[in-house]
Amino acid sequence: MRFVFKTNYDQDIRLFQHAGQMWTYLALFAVLLVAPAVVSSYMLSQLVFVFIYALVGVSLMILVGFTGQASLGHAAFLAIGAYTAAFMQAHGYTFATYFLLAGVLTGIVGLLVGFPALRLHGIYLLIATISFSFIIEELLARWESVTNGNEGMRVKTLELFGMEIGRNSDYFYYLCLGVLTVTIIVTLNIMRSPTGRAFIAVRDSETAARSMGVDIAATKVRAFGLSAAITGFAGALFAHKMTFLSPEMFTLQLSIEFIMVIIIGGSLGLHGAILGAIFIIMIDPLLTLLKDDVPLLIGSLAQAFGAGSERVKALEDGTQALTSTAGLKGVIYGLIIMLFILFEPFGLYGRWLKIKLFFQMFPLYKKSTFKRQKVYVKSERNR
Amino acid sequence: MLDFIQQLVSGVALGCVYGLIALGVVLIYKTTEVVNFAQGDLMMLGGFFAYTFIGILGLNYWLGFALAVAAMALVGMLVERLLVRPILGFPQFAIVMATIGLGFFLRSIAGMIWGTDDLKIDTPFSNGVVKFGDLVLADDKLSVIVATLILCLVLYLFFNKTRLGTAMRGTSENMLAAYYMGIPVKRVVSLVWAISAMVAACAGVLLAPITFIHSNVGLALGLASFPAAVLGGFGSIPGAVVGGIIIGVLQTLAGFYMAEGWKSVFPYIILLGVLLLKPEGLFGALGRKKV
Amino acid sequence: MTSLFKVENLSLQFGGLKAVDDVTFDVQKGEVFTIIGPNGAGKTSIFNLISRLYNPTAGRLFFDGQDITQLPAHKIAQLGIARTFQNIELFENASLLSNLLVGRHCHSRTQLWQEMLFLPNVKRAEREHRMQVEEVIEFLDLQAYRDKLIAGLPYGVRKVTEVARALCSKPKLILLDEPSSGLNVEETDDMSFWIRDIKNDLGITVLMVEHDMSLVRRVSDRVLALNYGRVLALGTADEVQRHPDVVAAYLGT
Q1: Within chain C, which residue ranges are assigned CATH 3.40.50.300?
Q2: Of the segments A364-373, B44-53, B122-131, B250-259, which one has the largest average pLDDT value?
Q3: Given an 8 Å threshold on Cβ–Cβ distance, is C89 in contact with A216?
Q4: First vs last Cα of chain B: how many Å apart?
Q5: Would you call A189 and C98 a contact, using CB atoms and an 8 Å cutoff?
């Protein structure tokens, strides 16, 4: 077990609490830097999606995890970022300009959503953000002069420093990695500053926060703006990764996927956003794997247990049919959400913390350390 | 003018469906403070059950209707037992997400079992019409309205005149206190889920002749019922139905008189307006935390 | 002695119920001023009015000669009024340290963009906040719990943390809402020493709501008794306790 002896206040203020932590993250970063040379182009492409989802995950962590404001409207923010980028690029602006503007504009929309959201909380806020997202979706479909409506909109190849950067190129991977890294560092900086603590304060007790001098309205609006801006940046990258945008890409389902990122990852810290993004993106390759290999596996298992060749064939076909049904992904998504909330409420990162603590405290670890307290008195109706 | 009345009636019928879904949502919210985002999908499932009993097994409509409602009661209790009870008392957001996950799950399962084609069942109301002079009203729409009225009356009597109904109201006021007073809270909550799944099933079966039965029908209608619930005050049962009817009428009229595209977002625009101007809705009251 | 805080003809009405009815008093600089009264007398309502969580129906509040009746709630802390809550309102899922750092919020002057980059001025400010917080931790003996999550702390410690958080904002006036409720005898003793220290060593004026008469007698300079939102008596603890109206209010007539 590692004991961190604190001899200086700066130790708590620093980004890394101790040297071991710093080296771990540097090593991870180095691995990510050399990844393009090692992994397949398919995996590289998946990694880019991980980065984009992780960006949105970080933005949701700020809003939902840290500030405690629910949102099921982040697909709309992503759409605003993506369409802004695509529209401005089509009108000849450089990447630096439209990338920044995608973030800034989405951030402004976020602020505008944040102001009315001040009066709402919990379930009402959730419903309001869903409504916002529907309205944006409809707007994208109808505002044909800008978005080209339901026909969709092509996104030209990214151009940076006079160089064309294709959606599957290594450079695009580095660009996304860079944006994610900067975002994470900025977010960590905010979280160790007064604003970050104000977020947490608003989440845990608005009354107390107000009495301590936290301007609740300003804090919530800031959280909304920040979160939306990060999602806007992610949207610009998303546009280039997809190379084609249409309104039906930004549905409620996408918002739910984003929320899944932090549910799966766990809302204890930024780690959760990253782990959740990896998990969500890797479901797809796993499903493909399931489709190809599981029927054969079941077949060979049956054979090993002495089933006749006809039975084996029938079994293989049966599983094949089951695993290739269109709805399977939805079933799995639904199950994952429910199972995580039921059995792993702190998500993957929470599980990691538990395992870590188990070994640190061995043999004194007690399960109840992470037990969530249940509240049976009606609390959330009154605020 | 005739056009207008006809639109009005279809609006009221659509609104009744919203109202029935919203009613289920509110019922569950009142007793357990769980906001069920899968209510629309329970309705969808009810429709599919009815299709199975009536369309596939060829049972009599009323028998099939009853069986579908009974089956949904079981589904409701199952959901409560397996998903909701273990997480009751957790933060609201987690519970809401669990029900969203449930909706996802039910939708996809229904798609896998019954396919993604539009299904239809024959009902006694399918093609009939009622004429009042020049005014022609379809039976299927009238049946929804009448059934909603009957259901509301039954629920009203149940909650106000029976012991069990009183127990439910007690539970909704304060679960812990109700428990100490000897009300079997677990059974009550389970029953509330059963009732709201039954209401959802009724909505699903009644809706069958109007729209097709399809696995995605629940999502759209379920979400559009939230504006109804909020307009009604989110916690008031008559409010949910009235809110549903208002939303349904306004949406239908918007679809008829306004440009394309307004119809689908109109409930949400109303919702945002209500949330900003009068968040307590028409019949509700907002509480305030004591410090 | 000069007056630090003044309440003039304060009233608060919820529908037909007068929670606070024409209350007037002033708190002298450097004293411990206690409000007592039976349940529902309007004590906490007065606190909520002072910290601007409620809007008064009538009357005015003055702090340091400034009219604060119309200020928004989050501006109150900046003036130098901090408070604790009767039913602990801590930030449950944060460490004790960050709870106390939130107490410093009214002193933070850094901009969001500076915090994003964690510029040197932010770092300096953080160090300064941290130093102030450590002093309070020292003062209230909270060292052992510094990095612990609030959610796992015992009730007594949370109660002290509430006081600590309020102290972190370096207030001129601290409002303590039933500081001893739920504490055992020893913890109540500790609390009474701390309240005296807050007054004598830190020079902070204390306005307190309290039920425990032994604690009230030990620390209070003046006591105000309320019932049904109205002032019954004002004076030293003994005077108030002997006042016939107060006896009647507590024992019934």
Answers
A1: 1-80+171-253
A2: B44-53
A3: no
A4: 56
A5: no
A376–chain C Cβ distance below 8 A for any pair:
no
Q: What is the mean pLDDT of residues A317-331?
A: 74
Residue B12, min C-alpha distance to chain A (Å)? 22
The alpha-carbon gap from B69 to the nearest alpha carbon of chain A, in Å, equals 24
Reduced 3-state DSSP string for C81-99: EEECCCCCCCCCCCEHHHH
Q: Is residue A30 part of a domain?
A: no
Model ipTM over 0.85:
yes
A104-150, pLDDT tens digit by residue? 999 999 999 888 778 777 788 888 899 999 999 999 998 888 888 88
Residue B288 lies in a domain: no
What is the domain range of residue B67? 2-277
Runs of H (alpha helix) within C18-59? 43-50
Q: How far apart are alpha carbons A248 and A244 in whole angstroms? A: 11
User: Per CATH, which fold does C1-80+171-253 belong to?
Assistant: Rossmann fold (3.40.50)
Q: What's the one-letter identity of residue C2? A: T
Residue C106 with chain A: CB contacts under 8 Å: 212-213
Judgement on whether residues A214 and A357 belong to the same structural domain of the protein: no
In a domain, B286, yes or no: no
Q: Which of A70, A325, A329 sits opposite B93 (nearest CB)?
A: A70
In the predicted structure, residue B236 carries a pLDDT above the cut 90? no
Q: Which residues from chain B sit within 8 angstroms of residue C53, using beta carbons?
A: 291
Q: Kindly state whether residues A112 and A223 are assigned to the same domain.
A: yes
pLDDT attached to residue A267: 79
User: Which residues lie below 8 Å from residue C179, measured CB to CB, with a gap of 6+?
Assistant: C84, C159, C163, C191, C195, C208, C210, C215
The verdict on A127 touching B (C-beta cutoff 8 Å) is: yes
Q: What would the pLDDT profile of C214-252 be if each residue is shown by its tens digit?
A: 899 999 999 999 988 889 999 998 898 888 888 888 877
Task: Check: CB of residue B168 under 8 Å from CB of residue B59.
Answer: no
In a domain, A101, yes or no: yes
**What's the domain count of chain B?**
1
Q: Which residues of C touch B290 (CB under 8 A)?
A: 87
A75 with A60, same domain: the answer is: yes
| Per-residue pLDDT tens digits for A229-249 | 999 999 999 999 998 999 989
- DSSP character at residue C38: S
Paired tokens of B233: 């005050």
What is the number of domains present in chain A?
2
From chain C, the residues in CB contact with A213 under 8 A are 74-78, 105-106, 169
CATH number for the domain spanning B116: value is 1.10.3470
Do the chains contact at B97 and A333, CB–CB below 8 Å?
no
Same domain, A273 and A328: no
Among B288, B290, B291, most C C-beta atoms within 10 A, so best to mutate, is: B291
Q: Where are the alpha helices (DSSP H) in chain C?
A: 43-50, 73-79, 96-103, 112-117, 120-139, 155-168, 185-200, 213-219, 237-242, 244-251
Whether the CB-CB separation of C248 and C41 falls below 8 Å is answered with: no
Q: Is residue B81 in some structural domain?
A: yes
Chain C interface, best mutation among A16, A193, A366, A370, by max C CB count within 10 A:
A193
What CATH number is associated with residue A268?
1.10.3470
Query: Could you tell me the sign of the dihedral formed by the alpha carbons of A98, A104, A107, A109, in that order?
Result: negative
| Residues C226/C53, Cβ–Cβ less than 8 Å | no
Tokens of C154: 């015992």
Q: Enumerate the residues of chain B whose CB falls inside 8 A of the CB of residue C86.
A: 291
